[in-house]
């Protein structure tokens, strides 16, 4: 079990490094597909550095839950930067997030709890996908996929909470645009930064 745990820390650290690399590519407008990454020598050094960082984080004595939550917040902040600049949520980053969250979950959570979270998240994701389809493009599929990944790994209740906080923040941002920028009601802006803000607010409220 200990060998498995340290292997998970290393792999999740490498996945975090991969997300940073992919986010850098997306931020600069380059392709975010996996294949070109493995053709760059520096990428392998980044993976090794990420594995070392993952093992170091695991050696701090933090619980798997804390590491898993930190991994989720870290990914949201990365995606907020990318979405804020490029208006996109790369599937490759979401795949890395899903993989690390599932690995952390398999290491520190009972099977029944993982099954319960995944099942509820899958049902929520299906409903969310249906709502996005019926919205006629008003809901971005990148946002939908990010919320779906969050739901199947962190639970649908948590996902609804941070989405609600994000909608609340975006509503007031819309009012600010309307009042001070003269932007119409149909103004479009990236939503992931507001989801990240909702996650930060939730974390802050949980500590009160």
| SS strand fraction | under 5%
Q: Radius of gyration, rounded?
A: 18 Å
Helicity level: over 70%
The major sheet is characterized as: none
**Spans with pLDDT under 50 lasting ≥5 residues?**
none
Structural class determined from secondary elements: mainly alpha
Count of helical stretches: 9
String of helices and strands: HHHHHHHHH
Based on DSSP secondary structure assignment, what is the total number of beta strands? 0
Number of domains: 2
Let me know the average pLDDT: 89
Tell me, what's the shape? globular
Question: How far apart lie the N and C ends?
Answer: 35 Å
Features:
single chain; mainly alpha; 2 domains
């Amino acid at each position: 079990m200990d060998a498995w745990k340290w292997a998970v820390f290393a792999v999740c650290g490498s996945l975090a490094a991969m997300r940073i690399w992919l986010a850098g590519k997306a931020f600069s407008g380059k392709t975010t597909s996996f294949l070109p990454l493995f053709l760059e020598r520096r990428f392998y050094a980044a993976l090794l550095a990420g594995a070392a960082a993952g093992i170091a984080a695991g050696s701090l004595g933090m619980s798997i839950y804390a590491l898993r939550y930190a991994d989720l917040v870290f990914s949201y902040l990365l995606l907020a930067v990318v979405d804020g600049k490029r208006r996109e949520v790369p599937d490759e980053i979401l795949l890395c997030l899903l993989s690390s969250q599932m690995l952390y979950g398999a290491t520190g959570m009972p099977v029944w709890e993982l099954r319960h979270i995944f099942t509820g998240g899958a049902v929520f994701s299906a409903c969310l996908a249906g709502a996005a389809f019926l919205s006629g493009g008003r809901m971005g599929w990148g946002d939908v996929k990010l919320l779906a990944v969050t739901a199947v790994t962190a639970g649908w209740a948590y996902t609804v909470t941070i989405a609600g906080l994000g909608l609340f923040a975006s509503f007031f941002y819309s009012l600010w645009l309307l009042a001070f920028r003269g932007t119409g009601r149909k103004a479009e802006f990236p939503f992931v930064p507001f989801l990240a803000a909702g996650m930060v607010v939730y974390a802050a409220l949980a500590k009160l």
